[in-house]
């Protein structure tokens, strides 16, 4: 059975997730394919969360008094990332 490490990029991972989805709609999946689909979906969601956290950690707000608050420094470490 494959796991997310065998897919070189998010594009390849997404392609495989979609292949398994379409196969599940057409003819159904074997137990191994269901496990692979679950693992790939988890890897996909983890990657999306990681990317979103990276973007949010780089947001800075200019306060009314002109000071800059980096939200990543202020809140990011509370989430353990």
Which whole number gives the mean pLDDT?
86
Structural class assignment: mainly alpha
Number of domains: 1
Overall body shape: rod-shaped
- Any idea what the CATH architecture is? Up-down Bundle
Instruction: Give the assembly state of these chains.
Output: single chain
Largest sheet, strands/sense/barrel = 2 strands, antiparallel
What's the helix count?
3
CATH topology: Methane Monooxygenase Hydroxylase, Chain G, domain 1
Give a count of the beta strands, DSSP E runs of length 2 or more. Answer: 2
Distance between the termini: 30 Å
Fraction of residues in helix:
55-70%
Main β-sheet, spatial strand arrangement: 1-2
What CATH first level would be assigned? Mainly Alpha
Q: Which runs of at least 5 residues are low in confidence (pLDDT < 50)? A: 1-5
The fraction of residues assigned to DSSP E strands is: 5-15%
Instruction: Evaluate the radius of gyration.
Output: 19 Å
Order of helices and strands: HHEEH
Main attributes of the structure:
single chain; 81 residues; mainly alpha; Methane Monooxygenase Hydroxylase, Chain G, domain 1; two-stranded antiparallel ribbon; 2 strands; disordered N terminus
Describe the model.
- With 81 residues, the chain is mainly α.
- It has one domain (4-79): Methane Monooxygenase Hydroxylase, Chain G, domain 1.
- It is built from three helices and two strands.
- It has helices at residues 10-26, 31-57, 71-75, and strands at 60-62, 68-70.
- Strands 1-2 form a two-stranded antiparallel sheet.
- Helix 1 packs antiparallel against helix 2.
- The longest helix has 27 residues, at 31-57.
- The chain is rod-shaped.
- It starts with 9 loop residues before the first helix and ends in a 6-residue tail after the last helix.
